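Researcher: Hi, I'm a grad student and pretty new to this. My advisor asked me to get structures for two proteins we've been looking at. I'm not sure of the right format, so I'll just paste the first sequence and hope you can take it from there.
Model: That works fine. Here's the first sequence with its structure tokens right after it:
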Amino acid sequence: MRPMIEQLLRPLLLTAFAAALCLAVNGTAGAANQTKLRLGMVVTLSGSSSVLGTQTRDGFQLALNQLGGRLGGREVELFVADDELKPDIAVQRLQGLLARDQVELVVGPIFSNILQAIHKPVIDSGRILISPNAGPSLYAGAQCSPYFSVVSYQNDQAHEVMGRYAEGKAYRRIAVIMPNYQAGKDAVAGFRRAFRGEISDEIYVPMTQLDFSAELARIAANKPDAVFTFMPGGMGVALVKQYAQAGLASRIPFLSTFTFDEATLPAQQEAALGLTGSTSWSPSLDNPANKAFVAAYEAAYRNVPSAYAMQGYDTAMLIHSALQQTEGETQDRDRLAAAIRKAEFTSLRGHFRFNTNGYPIQDFYQVRAIKRPDGKFQTEIVDRILTDYGDTYAKDCRATLPQ
């Protein structure tokens, strides 16, 4: 009789066990979804380059607002720290995010020298770091990490666009002027990779410099076929204005990356018109998601979004897509890192995927500055120069997630 009873009860017991297991799993996921996601952001919000961090933060916040304040089903508590463009301050503020605020993910920063300061502390703390902008070569090759991803680009890539452009224009002598930090050096390396002519003068300036009169006099005396520069934020505002005031714009073609964009054009205005640049995105990019983003951003913040705003928005959507895969869980860092690298979201750029080193594979464009009928300034795509393009350092990346 007993074996018969056990035989009759076994299906019921199995069903009850399955239901209990399902309840436990769903209960765990539900508990995670009921707990606020503590998210840290380290960006530059003070000084002459504060507009870059402000647009990055605002782009991220716009996506968060559109998602009802939730990423992957979890309500978000966002802790934003101003690195003040000072590595020591960045590390200090980061430690507060990690220890005091107990953030589960870190987003940032804008500048590569700040990234070099915070990269190791974040990774060593057991968190994942996602850069919305800074993409130095340093972490793209042998020092890559599966727990670090870049949403923007590898620094060299956009500069290669201008190298190809200069080569196509048959320029033979180019003078370069750069800020003296990792991204400036990456800019020269990227430009050289595509340009076969001579770098007739190579000038590096401090990151706080806003007076370029001596450097412009030196360039004028050098008489190059063109000048190539990368000057982000306030440095770019000052350089573009002074270049025009010195009368060089009509004499020496000005080629740049991230020196004029929607973040700086409101200050540069007519001085930037006619200049040539390169980027991975523009407000003029013709796809439905981008058109909706530009309209929503302008309505919310009353200014034209730059690539920094776009990258902030894409970063939020990337995290949202990853947390959807992990059901809101962040404790399993390997699972979360793998979900991030899948990049299962619609980028405002269109074509986007991660390379093996966690840097993007995407398209790059030649752009120019224009004045819109409403009086506002923005960049406009002239031509697509690179298609589905990955950086050259990925081949040296050997770091993978544990199996």
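Researcher: Oh nice, that was easy. Here's the second one.
Model: And its structure:
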Amino acid sequence: MKPLLTPSILAADFANLERDINAAERGGADYFHLDIMDGHFVPNISFGPWVAKLMRKITDRPLDAHLMITNPREYIPEFIEAGVELIYPHIEASYDIYRTVQMITDHGARAGITLNPATPISSVEGVIDLIDAVLVMSVCPGFGGQKFIPSSMDRITKLRELLDSLKPSIRIAVDGGVTLENIGNLRKAGADFFIAGSAVFEAPDIEERVRAMKKAMK
């Protein structure tokens, strides 16, 4: 599968959001990533569906959303209506992850699931028939700019082996501490969908950084 880069706008300059998005587009960004935090599931608050609507006015690139929220089913329809095409709820946030994922597909979007660093990768097996991607958290969710957890490399490799035996078309996304320096090794480990926030939007030249990361991940 072609590797994809999705810059996380949580790290962008919201006073100059369109400028930053346009720069990332020129560099070749494939998607844009929305980190949704409710202050309950994780100890931070970010933004809601209105940002997705705003992004739809700025870019025609696909949007994916990572729902770090306690009750994802209450908000999934709103995010899809706002223009999000791929949604990752947390497997840890729902007592019935199957129903949560099914709601995403029933509303016409593509579904993924997210695994925290300590969540067994075997957890994906219960929803394997409904999902298009698994998001491996390589930091503890809730804040940008954290350092990559080294054991995530091994988790990605084991997950890739599991998915290849069950449904090879499922992508592995990785979020947390993804940098120009480690994106190549993450690709070798088995990831093919890379979420990067600070590494992109805090670079001196956003366009050039996106271009460099896309080159490195190939």
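Researcher: Is there anything I should tell my advisor about the second?
Model: You could mention this: Residues 152-166 form the longest helix (15 residues).
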